TrEMBL record:
Domain HTH tetR-type: 7-66
Lineage: Bacteria, Bacillati, Actinomycetota, Actinomycetes, Nakamurellales
Keyword rRNA-binding assigned: no
GO biological process: regulation of DNA-templated transcription
A GO term, aspect molecular function: DNA binding
Keyword NADP: no
PANTHER family to which the protein is assigned, alphabetical: HTH-TYPE TRANSCRIPTIONAL REGULATOR RUTR, REGULATORY PROTEIN
Protein name, per record: TetR/AcrR family transcriptional regulator
DNA-binding residue intervals: 29-48
Amino acid sequence: MARPRSEDRRNAILGAASRVVATEGLGASTSGIAREAGVSNGSLFVYFETKSVLLNELYVSLKTEMGAMAVDGLPDGSDPHDQVRHLWDQWMRWATSHPDKRRALAQLAVSDDITAESRQAARSGFGGIAELLDRCRQRGPVRDAPLGFLLEIMNAMADATVDAIQRHPDHAEEYSRIAFDALWRVLG
């Protein structure tokens, strides 16, 4: 009889995959991921049928975690500027607190292994964020651009900001404020 799957073991494999992909890239071996997770290579495949399945689940997991952090404590009914600022600050906090996860996510985001279904699953968790940004941009220069393009612009600004903060941590608040102000001008 097969042993029941452990959620803790599954999470350990995802955590290990995040760390290994961050340091070794998408070519990281499943045996290296299993070793980092403290499981056998065979056990890894009990939880994730293929490496591609593992990478897709890791992508969705990281995007979901980042999105959950962004909306955590979002002030309902407050000024849209304050709401977007909250999202931005939370995004910066997640990215600077989890550099390995951020690096892994950056690599996964450009991977051909990540399916359209996984990308859609990750986006579905950002519904409230997308709706807020859509409302905020109604009079701005990106009002007619596809929302996906606006999200790509915002992501690029966030990545550049986090990179600058990591190089110059003593300027973290200043860089975050400057980048947010630029984003707000883009929105409207």
